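Predict structure. Chain length: 531.
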Amino acid sequence: MRIVNVFLAISFMLFLNFSRGNCQNAAPQLGKSSMKEVIAAMTLEEKSKLVAGTGMRFGGGPTVGEVDNKVPGSAGATYPIPRLGIPAIVVADGPAGIRISPFRGKDSTQTYYCTAFPVATLLASTWDTELVKKVGEAMGNEVLEYGVDVILGPGLNIHRNPLGGRNFEYFSEDPYLTGKLTAAIVKGIQSKGVGTSVKHFAANNQETNRNTINTIASERALREIYLEGFRVGIQEGEPWTVMSSYNKINGPYTSENKELLTNILRDEWKYNGFVMTDWFGGKDPIAQMIAGNDLLMPGTPNQSKAILEAVQNGKLDVAILDRNIEKILNIILKSPSFKNYKYSNKPNLKANAETARMVAAEGMILLKNDGKALPIAVNAKNIAAFGNTSYDIVTGGTGSGDVNEAYSISMVTGLTNAGYKVDGEIEKLYNDFIKAEVAKRPRQRGFMLPPPLPQMVVSGELIAKKAKETDLALITIGRNSGEFADRKLENDFYLNDTEKDLIKNVSTAFRALGKKVVIVLNIGGVIEVNS
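Prediction complete.
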């Protein structure tokens, strides 16, 4: 009798455990159950968190939200719901190449450098969609193998003003060219199974007051200029995501603008991906949900709380929340994270550098070549290189468009590698000057662009001496710009007096002896050269 009772007890316990296991496994799973079932199984709290990101870390300091550190240095991630089979997807900056941390913790045995591809303005100068697509393929390889799901690029705002601080991130002042190149690079990146986020939608053409500026534009100007590049790029490239911009357009913030995000983007252009905010963009999370801005990035607890309470008190229809969630989940389904891709952390950096080198050559512009100064004659083996940037090259803009590359090749190093001899006396003077001036710079905060170095003054005596000793003069003029600030006219768009004197004095001395002078503009945004 005791044996039978023990048997019955064991059977009952096994039945209970089996039932509990079935209950635990009964939750719908993304990719296996219908989308409707998965969304219906979410709690309201889970929904409110999924439409806001998991936060970001500020310079190693405190976090906002629940940061996912899968890829250190990435810009953020979405909120995971493991019980429903929903992983976090990782997003990282990258209009000119993926921007992540090159080091992780105290481990210095492995690095995570990325390729600094030529900036978008140079890509546009190639007028070659197939070449730009190849850049996208190389970029996509690094996104995939470093464990990122979506790269935050390309940028395609119009060059409305030559002083735009982020013009280097954007292709052109022409919407047709912009749209075609956007589609090309998007196709290239997404061919690797990762996503893009075309930005900044729309009319984000200045950094000055970018979070508050109200762009007043007519319907015709918007349609023909500021939206047309996005239309072509989105319809032909089919990016996974679109990033709304910081600014307002004719009143409302773009991320709270239903006419822009729903009527135009979804209804007219038939876009099926999801829209995310720029980081901390917009003001009202409820208005953003209603407008069709599906994901708030990087996400804060207060945003999730506001959305939760808005549904509870009837200010936000849960059907709108579900609509936005479905768009996010449709993209998560495509992602490497959902597919459990075993990323290697070893992209093909060598091949990608070769691609970058090839497209850089194709995009360089020869403004004039009087007297066939270029190519440099075979017998011109001794070069006098002037200008700070001959030695301290600008590889790309700053801010979220920057890339942590492993190395860069200066102008003089490139010439040396090609078999030319660069005058050592001038080289030492410039290197010593640059080192001293860099040491004087105040410590920079985050993305901010450091102040430009003053141009070294070169004496007339030294110039005359080198005109006799060397075969050719090279003068490099450099400019840089970045996020948070637009460029200035003086000492930026215009050459400063020291630069003008340098060009005049070197040109006069070398030409008097029948020798050539080559000027290189190492710039990401245009400068005035008539003077």
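Summary: The longest strand covers residues 195-201.
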